Every structure is written in C-alpha cells, then in structure tokens.
Amino acid sequence: MRLLEREQGLDTVRRALDGMGADGTVLTAVTGTPGTGRSAFLDAVAAHAEQAGCVVRRARGSRLARGLSLGDPAAPLPDPTVRPLVLLVDDLQWAGEHALSALSALLDDPGQGRLFLVAAVCEGEFATETSGVQDVLHRADHVVRTGPLGPEGVGALLGGHGHVLSDGQVRAWHRATEGNPALVASLLERLDHAERPARARLLDLARARPAPWRLRSRVAAALTGHPDSVGRLAACAALLGGRAQTHVLARLAELDPGEADRAAGALASLGWAADRWTPPVLWDCVREAAEEGVGLTDRVRLHRRAAELLYVAGEPAERVVRHVMEVGPGDWTGAAGLLRDTACELWRLGDDALAVRGLRRALREFPPDSPRRGDLLTALADVEREADTSAMLRHVGQALPLLGTVEERAAVVSCVPLTLFLSAPHAVPELLEPAGAGHERRIPAAAGTGLRSARRSVPGRGLGGPLRLRGPALCTGGRHVPGQAAVSEPLPFRRNSPTATA
C-alpha cells in the first residue's frame, strides 16, 4: 500500500534512530485502527534503517499460532555492538505470552549494543487489551499513530491507480471510506476488471460489487475474541443500513442498555461507529457477512423487527420500506399503505426503480380481486408512465375493474397519452365519456391501507396525512423538483364531444 500523509511519524522514527547512543534500547510503538497502514509504515521504517546501515529483522504476530515468526529460525541474531539492530514487530497483539515475556525481559535488560525496536499494534482488537501488550505499550519511548487519510490523501491514492477525480468526487470517496486506506484499496480492487465507466459513477459501481475476500477476512478478524454482544450489535447495525439511535440497535440485537453501550464502545475502538453507520463501505462489508451468516428465519425476524423499530423511532419511511421489501410485512397490516405512499414520494423525488419495487411488493399483499389493488395499480401505472408504457397500459387495464366509481375510472383513463390510446384496452373508450375536464390530481389511499391504518397497527408515531400532488391521476409528464411547487398539467387529450374537445 502506498504510504501517504505519514511524514510526521516517519520523522519521529528517523530522529529516534539517528539519535541512538553507543548502547541502549529505544522502543517505538505504532498504533492505529484496522486498515490504516501500520504494515506499510513499518516497510518505510525498514527502508530508512537499511539505508542508515542498520541490520533489520522483522517479525509478525500470528493470530492462529499466537506467537512471533522471525523468518529463518536458524539464522543467528546479529551482534548489536557492531551495527545497530532494528527489530520490527507487526501485530504485536498476537505475539503470545511467551514472546511478550521475552520482549519485556529484553527491555528490562538490553545488554550491550544498540537495539531499535518498533512494535505495531492494532487498536480495538480484543488481544490488544491483554496485560502483556499493554505493558510493552506503556514502556514505549515514542508513539506514532496511523490515522485516516484526509481528502487530499484519498485523492492521491486514487490518482496513483489512474483515477483523477474532481474535488467533489474525491470528497464522496472520503466520506464513504472515512479516509481508511484499506477501504479505499478494497474499492479500487473491485474496479480492476471493470469497464471504464464515467468518473462520477466509479464509487457507486465499486460499492455495488461484493467486498473482496481480503477485506471480509480483516473484518472477521477484527471481531475475533470480542464478546458475542459485539458481533450481534455489529450485525444488527449493518442490517439497519444507516444511522440509528443506540437504544434502537439495542432492542434489535436484544441487548440490555449496558451491554449495548459496551458493545458500541468496542466497535468505536475499531473505528466503526454503529450509531452513525460510518464508514459506510465498512458497514457494507459487515452487512454482506451478516446476511450470509444469519439463517432465513432469523433474517426474516430481524428485518420485520427493524421495520417496526425504525417506524416507531420516526425514521424516514423509505428506510422502513427497504426492510419490508426484503421479507414482507408479516402481521403488520399497515405496511402495504406505507409501501404505497413511500413509493409515490420516491417517484416524486426521482427514484423510479425503488418506487416500482415498493408498489410491486405492496401488490403481493392482496389477492387479485381485492379492491385495494386498484389504488396500488393506479400508482404503479403512474410511475411507469415514462419508463415502461406497455406495463402502464396493462396496469391501467387491471386497475379499472377494481376502482370504486365511474368517475375514478374515467379520471385514470383520461390521462392515457394520445399516442398510446390506440393500444389501450377495449374497455377504455367506454369509460372516457363521463370524464370531466377539471379533475384535480390526488394520490388516493385505499380504505384500510393508508397511513392512518398504519398508525393504528404500529402506535407511537404519526406520519401526517396521505401524500397529494396536484393534477389529474396519471397526468404529470414530470415530477416535483425540490424547491418548486408541483403544478397541474392539462389532460393530454380529450375525446370529441359536446363537453370535451381534442
């Protein structure tokens, strides 16, 4: 990994190494959360030490063996009285009791010669809190912390891989990764075999692809050894998919407040903010692992419980709907109305794909002859008006027999564009005659499926009245733009008659 924004730490190490006397031991600790480049920092220290004429030996703690690997065990340690010995230890937290005791003894009695010891420790991992590791850290003469990169560092890392982006795009990458070099590298790895998309789409394309195995193994390793409550809170936070109050996470993970606070603190020490869902790319990876590791029954239960908790907590309806669409509403009778109203709002704001998914999911809750389907089919046709005209006509035809009055049917049919009228169902012309010229558009709420019904089903929160837009149903050629008022548009056509002219 390319080393960026680490000059201050490297200067500290260089001064300490260059200032060593004829005898003695200097201990420098390198700390940082997972993925912040501790190993890359040790590489830079090794390069400087070799240029300075030192003998460099490296060791790495083993998570499985709980010991230190010093390369060839038959190779004798050099005499530190001839040339300084620089010993670089990575992942000290996994060195094991025997190796940690040996290092402590060496620090107590360094003997003759010069020994420069640099030990890297991962913050937040369970083994870091053991007494042996903490004893070594407390003896450190210097401490260097590898923190996250700033936007300039992220931009330089992207530029090194051939992606020269605008300042705004770099800031988006920085927000998604919180400047963690390993997370940036994992996104770049997903783009290695992709076609060259537009620069503005690079981040979305990378996040849409599965997390590399290397990142997933790092995430799993970081949770190793922690109490089960930490993993449960992480999985539930990932499944919620966004910011959430700690008490909501606690109820979803079935933890008492004390357990939840301790688990959230353990995740925060890793650099993972469960309540703020940052960094997002990290939580994407945790969610993938959680969805694969949770059984179907538990997955259904968690998503339904998440929908109800978010609804009661007053979270935006689109967050609630995503969980309902995953597994269905179960016994929550108001979910179909919530799906429908949220879908109409999403369509109004420009998210056609999610709006269609929400309405199709709501339709699955009612039998084909249910009158409640008429309102949902009308809204679905409205969303499909520009994107899929054949589906729009099909859904208009399916909605007509389910609408309660001739006026409602006429208002829907009269808004079918003239260019599509010849392809409309045969029953459509018969319903046009009663259509008035001044229908005002509303997004109707079928009885029992609107937000009022949803409030009765899940008490504790009010969402306001049903969504309404001006203009006749199926008649707006555009959608609402934030900051502008929605406007009524004239009907696209009228039949030649005494009350309506083309």
The total of helices stands at 23
Reported for the largest beta sheet, the result is: 6 strands, mixed
In N-to-C order, the SSE pattern is HEHEEEHEHEHHHHHHHHHHHHHHHHHHH
Low-pLDDT stretches: 431-502
Strand content: 5-15%
Query: SS-based structural class?
Result: alpha/beta
Distance between the termini: 68 Å
Number of strand elements: 6
**What is the radius of gyration?**
31 Å
The percent range for helix content is 40-55%
The largest sheet has its strands arranged as 3-2-4-5-1-6
Mean pLDDT: 78
Basic shape = elongated
Write the layout of secondary structure elements.
Blueprint: H1 7-18, E1 24-32, H2 38-51, E2 55-61, E3 68-69, E4 85-90, H3 96-108, E5 114-122, H4 131-138, E6 142-145, H5 151-159, H6 167-177, H7 181-190, H8 202-208, H9 213-223, H10 228-240, H11 246-253, H12 257-269, H13 280-293, H14 296-312, H15 317-327, H16 335-349, H17 352-363, H18 372-384, H19 389-399, H20 406-413, H21 418-421, H22 428-432, H23 451-457
Parallel strand pairs: 1-5, 1-6, 2-4, 4-5
Antiparallel strand pairs: 2-3
Kindly describe this structure.
The protein is an alpha/beta fold. The chain is built from 23 helices and 6 strands. It has a 6-stranded mixed beta sheet with strand order 3-2-4-5-1-6, with helices on both faces. The longest helix has 17 residues, at 296-312. The chain is elongated. The model is unreliable at 431-502 (pLDDT under 50).
